[in-house]
Amino acid sequence: MNLHLLKSLIASLFLVLILCLNNDVEAQQTQKFENPKLTDTASWSMVLLPDPQNYVKFQRNQPILDVMMNWITERIDSLHIKMVMCTGDLVEHDDIVNPDGKKMDQTGQQQWKAVAKAFGKLDGKIPYITATGNHDYNIFSYTHKPKTTHFPEYFPAEKNFLNQKMLREVAPNIYGNNSLENAAYEWRSPQGKPYLFLSIEFAPRDTILTWARELVAQKKYKDHAVVLLTHAYLKYTNEWIEKEGYDLPGANYGKAIWEKLVYPSSNIKLVISGHIGGVNDARKHVAFKTDKNNKGITVQQMTFNAQAMGGGHYGNGGDGWLRILEFMPDGKTIKVKTFSPLFALSPSTQNLAWRKANYDEFTFKLD
């Protein structure tokens, strides 16, 4: 090869390299990070928080939950956030007094105080509803005593006056005391659409399912869109959970909740749950299922969790993932997006702040 030809080849390769670099820069510029925003300024939104147990069981992870709560309060106005819902498992262990430092380094009381303090950032600013999960009860003592929990102590009705203002109905827990383990809240959207948010305990008893079914059938709620919040409902395969490994007599899981409560109720339009997860596998933390109830009305069922993202069950607690549900002005369409305020904090990680898979960003409609 002569010298002139070699110089021409090198120049051509150099030009190609420059063009590639320019294209990369342009691609990065076109993919510039954007914070969440509404697609319609007349919409309102709900934020869905996954199981926070792995945030609060380690002192080192608790600030991540604070980041999530602070992000919510900062965007109440811009995203028209009207409700926050949490899928349960607020703590890892209800009453442990001797954590080993490896599985957790916080006692049960410390965990309850931490999660109550985190939700305290929302108190007086926005209403929130949380389910109770299996870890919120004495799961290691099920065969020795009833499923007790410190939830009523740390999440009483008066904790957030905005919750109390919406509260309409409560049912007795295992000891016969009324608590927010089973409660219904009434609210109207900015467009005037009436909603009833109904939260029921982990593995609800038959008496609770009967109470809930009779409640939503009342004449005063017949025109409400009922949103049911419970902890253990769907598997990541989009099938109902039929049983769990806990020795709980009379317990009901996903399939039984569907058959005894959701299917026979004409106005339950949306079911939300958590509980499931696979280590560092986003797909195994989520599920979605659509079915018709006994009136032929569509029921949308969505599970969202993130507890084993960010390093597994002994990692950072879930990478800060949450979901934003945008309720469109038509009162039927809901747009779902999955976002991490933790990754969004720094320009060096903002490219990770959105999850765009079809199971993380999608749209569905309510009947």
From TrEMBL:
The source's domain of life comes to Bacteria
Q: Where are the transmembrane segments?
A: none
Keywords of this entry: Signal
Q: Where is the Calcineurin-like phosphoesterase domain?
A: 76-276
- InterPro entries per the UniProt record, alphabetical: Calcineurin-like_PHP (IPR004843), Metallo-depent_PP-like (IPR029052), STPP_CPPED1 (IPR051918)
Q: Does the keyword Nucleus apply?
A: no
Q: What is this protein called?
A: Calcineurin-like phosphoesterase family protein
Give the source lineage, highest ranks first: Bacteria, Pseudomonadati, Bacteroidota, Sphingobacteriia, Sphingobacteriales
Write down the SUPFAM superfamilies for this protein, in alphabetical order.
Metallo-dependent phosphatases (SSF56300)
Q: Name one GO molecular function term.
A: hydrolase activity
User: Is Signal one of the keywords UniProt gives this record?
Assistant: yes
Signal sequence annotation: 1-27
